[in-house]
Write a structure and sequence with these properties.
single chain, mainly alpha, Cytochrome Bc1 Complex, Chain D, domain 2, two-stranded antiparallel sheet, about 30% helix, globular
Amino acid sequence: MLPAAVCSALPAAQGAPGEEGFPALVRRLQAERPAFAKRQQDLLAARYDLAERPAVGAAMSRGKALQDGVRVRLPAGLTWERLAALSPEVVRERGLWPAGFLPLPHPHHESGGMVFPASLITETRQQTDRDLTRFDLDFDLPDRFLPEFPAAIYLTTRPDLGDVSQGKVVTHANYTALFKDLLNPKQLEGLRLLVTPFPQQQFNATEDRRSLKASLGVACFDCHANGHTNGATHTVGDIRPNERRHRIDTPTLRGVNIQRLFGSQRALKTIEDFTEFEQRAAYFDGIPADAARKGVNVLERGSQVHAMAEFQALLDFPPAPKLDLFGRLAAARASEGELRGQGVFFGKGRCATCHVPPYYTDNLMHNLKVERFFKEVTVNGRTASADGPIKTFPLRGIKDSPPYLHDGRLLTLEDSVEFFNLVLELNLSAQEKQDLTAFLKAL
């Protein structure tokens, strides 16, 4: 509960008569917070093995260990081999689809909105004195299943430098010192705007916000930290009713220069479109009235959006020293298991149907029709039903971007392999799954 002294110091609401005042809103949501947090943690514990189990010999670009193994829990008495031998119809009728393969709810799906990991909140507070803490809920996934923080930064214009992050999180407090000698003035201005906070649905100066103090807002790089991702989550603004809205796992911005589809429904065709749309609509859950009331930041296309997009286009994938110029493994640099995994990827696994080298995307949408494996059910405010078409994200550097799938329901690469083995009805052997995972880690 919020201390009474703090509540008494909060300003009274200035909305229409009869509206809940801000102190009352804080007290109510703080009182509800523990129950919703427990609900979500109970769900995660039931769906996944959340133990600390780092992979041997596999790490992200700056050294953070990947978590090893399949973490999705199976129904009692089942094995992955037995489950894969069943038809989708049988799995559906018997209720055997693993709960961890259902859509993952937002930490508080009924409320939704941007939620940040503790690492980002702490660093942002220290550097900029901004507080991205929500008084009504916390981020849910353990740090071990998130991308490393701070993430490495690779520039297409200076591949000779490797990681240019200097081990720091880029904010408006340090971006000039870090990049003044690497970028031209236009690119530097684009970066400035990407680290500048602007009003957002939960972080703003109105009194239905979810921060205790009136907030300047959220910066693009609060979610896409260092031009990558920190695992921050949200709910899409373009689906209704609320229980049908998807949780979003923040995608990396690495390699956006080769992508052609943007936005949660992929209706935007350029990174400029998405940059402009994000602050006009996505920041405010697609509610124009809220955007106007809370202080929407309307970017100017020529002098601002273009500069922001130009910097984003410089963000490169991490080095993959085992790949040749065509995105395939160079035999002399790869292990036998990785080479076998490449064979599965381009053969029996059918992965390359959508994930085409060298960047391992086809820039298209595909409908996996996962709903054929389960009956519609509502869990923690999220109705698990058809996801519809989803974007083929690039697999280059995929080991740096856990958790996986558009809503983060797959915690490890091993989970992802098991998921697609079932969904695509591949009947991969245990060895083929292991080899395929090794190949993915080499990308």
